[in-house]
Design goal:
Layout lengths: L15 H7 L4 H10 L21 H18 L49 E2 L7 H6 L4 H21 L15 H16 L19 H4 L2 H10 L13 H17 E2 L3 E10 L8 E2 L7 E9 L5 E6 L12 H9 L9 E4 L6 H9 L3 E5 L9 H4 L8 E6 L2 E7 L3 E6 L6 E5 L5 E5 H9 L2 H11 L9 H24 L7 H12 L11 H5 L5 E3 L3 E5 L5 E5 L2 E2 L1 H5 L5 E2 L1 E3 L10 H8 L8
Helix pairs in contact: 6-16, 9-15
Protein name: PiggyBac transposable element-derived protein domain-containing protein
Pfam families: DDE_Tnp_1_7
Amino acid sequence: MSNNPKPTKRSSEPSTSRVARRKRLNSSEVEEFLRDSDEDVYAGSDVDDLDYIADEGDASSESAGDEEEEENVEAVPEQRFDASSDQTPSSPPTDLQQPSRTASTTRWTTNSSSMRDISFTKTNELLVPPPDSPRGYVDLFLTDDYLQKIVDSSNRNADNIRNSTQFRRSRITNWKPLTIEELRIFIGLLYHTGTAKMNRLVDYWKSHRLYKSVFSDYMSRNRFQLILRCLHFVEEGDDPARMNKCKMIINTFNETMDRIYYPGRNLSLDESMVLFRGRLIFRQYIKGKRHKYGIKLYILSEPNGTIIRVHVFASTMDETSGPGHTEKIVEKLLQNNLDSGHAVFMDNFYNSYSLATKLLDRNTYCTGTLNKKRKDNPSEVISKKLKKGENISRYRNGVHIGKWKDKRELNYISSQFADQMQEITNKCGIVVLKPLAVLQYNQNMSGVDLQDQMLSYYPCERKTLRWYVKIFIHGIMMSMTNARQLYNKFSGKPSLSLYDFREKVIESFLPERQIEPQVSQASQQSKNHRLTKIEKSKERFFSTGRKATVTARKDCRNYYSNKKRVNTTMECKQCPNTPPFCIDCFFDLHKFAGFSNK
């Protein structure tokens, strides 16, 4: 017995619409059918126009229908039909699906004739007279006006901290106003911490023979830490909002680059990180960066690592956040470089067909990798399975989207390069073909990564710093590397490595101090050593509100070397480095030479 179900018996009286489709009707029957129909679409129609159901027009309507379908197949390049869709492959498209006769650029084609040729209309040049020395190039960034703003803001911040402190013996009570000259020395010492690396900041002031350095010759440890604590970058009258604490730093850097330098044609856009593991509402995480946690910077740079423009990303508080975030970032960083014929290289975080067309309208090329899930990608490229070495390309409105496979498939986009293939020799010595767009992307995209690499050689950052101070230190480090790039390019002198360039700049920030020459013991005995009061004084505040000026006390050098502590107000100015001594130790150390305190 068969398990096949019995076929359902069809009704012997088919519906009127089915008869209309199957039975050949004459003109009178068609008229009668239209009068009985409730469909408004046929009201007012002319019977002569309905040849596709009339007896005499049946054969011709079939061929006309085939021709119309063939026309639609040519107009719509590759229509895909889903099984769940009401539309079938044999059904003709409706009016909404018909492509516009004038909108031929809405289709992806294999013709590259829509690619545009845009000329670079600017000149890569230094916009100011070239300085004579490495220090002069750094001073283009660290101008007197900029440093004066930092000095004024830091002094205001120090006064606020001192007025709010509750501890009489806090170091902030000894604050003295900061000056531009002292700030330059402070910056020079900061630079030097990247050259002479020590694990802890206080190690630079150790008097032990293993840690002897020049830091104590220029600034005391307490003063250095006080300046580091009081550094501030909010101009007077500005809202003390979170992002305003670094606005002066970033704006000054961007304005300086706009004022002194115009970049070459090729630019790259990528993100970088300033290391920060503290609590901050806009702290970011980027897996592939040297510093995975920190403050995200969007950077426009040249392929050689010269930074052109920087934007600090403040997460949801940022002006570029929300829908279209990546396009807003690109527009903000390129605001002064559009309509000039630049070629921008970006990765798949930014690139899309929409962005490429917008940049092309502003005479700016765009090349880079492409996320396969982006809107408007050509489906025949994204879904195509390639063999190793194969490439597929499609064009639309001057934008080229392609896929190339080497070890793995790579989707790319370019409005500058078509599907030209170029021979290269890989590291195994094998000659292979690679798309020109991919080759140019690899050559020009590494500007930000190169800058991060150079900054990692001589880091000046320290732990436990406030986030905006880290932005400042990162800013002066970027200024150093940019100054070195400009020096090597425009000075006309032999190129300097980053180490040699830093050394010359640090030497100019920390001028040589006069050091007393070492004399023999006989010459020392001829001096008349005597104890004098320490000239340094400080103000003390008593609980009654009374203020008094007292002589500063120091630890006796003799007791200190024996790991004991005795305070004294006396020192010997005739001894090297003016050591402090109590009276007993002074005579014990000088009595054999016959010195007195007369």
